[in-house]
Amino acid sequence: MVTQAIIDVLKPKTFNVIFSTEPKTYKKAVKDLGWLTAMQNEYNVLLVNKTWILTPLPNGATII
Q: What is the rounded average pLDDT of the residues 44-55?
């Protein structure tokens, strides 16, 4: 008797690998449609879930 487990063990495994580099700056990220879309989607989800509020930067503070 041949079981599904035995059949799966003998199947060759295939993997799809996509090599990409992460942009080092925001300016580079917004030039890439994939990164721009991902950033916009993430922002929209934060707003929809009401887990994040955009606020003005306080005087004397710096962005890290």
A: 88
Domain housing 33 = 23-54
The runs of H, that is alpha helices, within the chain are 4-10, 26-29, 33-48
CB 44 within 8 A of CB 38: no
pLDDT bucket at 45, cuts 50 / 70 / 90 = very high
- Residue 10 domain-assigned (yes or no): no
Q: What is the pLDDT of residue 9?
A: 61
Residue 3 falls inside a structural domain: no
How many structural domains are present in the chain? Answer: 1
